[in-house]
Amino acid sequence: MNNFVYWAPTEVIFGKDTELQVTAAIKKFNGNRIIIVYGGGSVVRSGLLNRVLEQFKKENIPYKALGGVQPNPRLGFAKKAIEEAKAFGADFILAVGAGSVIDTAKAIAHGVANPEVELWDFWLRKQVVERSLPVGCILTLSAAGSETSNSSVLTNEETGEKRGLSTDFNRPKFAIMNPEITYTLPKEQITYGIVDIMMHTLDRYFTPTKGNAFTDEVAEALLRTVIHYGEKALQNSHDYEAMSELMWCGSISHNGLTGLGAVSDFAPHQLGHELSGKFDVAHGASLSTIWGAWANYCYEENPERFAQFGKKVWGIEEEDTKKCAVRAIEKLVDYFKSIGAPTCFSELGIGIQDEESLRDLARRCAFYGTRTIGSFKVLDEKAMYEIYKIANK
Question: Where is the Alcohol dehydrogenase iron-type/glycerol dehydrogenase GldA domain (predicted)?
Fold first, then answer.
């Protein structure tokens, strides 16, 4: 195992009715004037937002609620919210929603604390986050893991760029997780959540690092759990056991634990970001679309790793390493199909792309020739193009 530093400071408040503890949690972290960020109508229709607001009213805590966060969260919304938060004198940001809402809350917190900085410059790596407001969250979807992660993703709708930012200032102070809140989710959102959870683990698991036994075991156990309970959740979204297992796996998948001591890859995420940025498709859908193409392009770099994945996660009994690796890839692609997730461009709904579109995706992903991605197999712009080409069917 390599050297590592592990810091996961988010307080997790997990279980039934835990959203009723939100004001106590905010007070613990000295919140006095609160901006509440949420997305569309689901938190309103479910009554969750009203239950939260009633607690603020009951305890006379000043708040301002800002709704309208979209999937693939927009820079423009975050910038407008920053101005409202500054005018309100906010000292705490509460996200009530899923990954897009939580990522937006993190962006608002950075913007309020750094009014002299152009917000997008943090995501372009032109500026470094050195201070931020505290953020808390009430999770409504098991997927992105943003509730305990150091990551935040934004989309610049003017340029079509989607970028991720990793900094410990992104760590929420607390995460409230009541699995019952996820009971009314559409099947599609549960499906894409399953994909996202698995991909946050797989992008750490497929690594050039060797001899990382315990971390591998954690990742493999998490993947087996998600595969098993994901199917149960799709059969019955009111199955508390299934929904609670998915919720906890979602957080563990992206808080760093499943990749400790190893170099992470995240090439499929980077490739998927360009699909989301250009075509505004769901994040989870972009990941299931690209993973099989990435795996088929890269597996010969280390077929033993894919064979281990096949044996430990899927129970494949095949002595030939290459055959086992190929079967492991097929098993995951078939699983994605079985739960209704797309595995190629046609299934994603964007249709077969022409040559120029594929090359444009590769150029975007390579930041116009300024970067490579991945570590399992380092990918340049030409390799990115080849992977998009494999998925283009």
Answer: 9-179
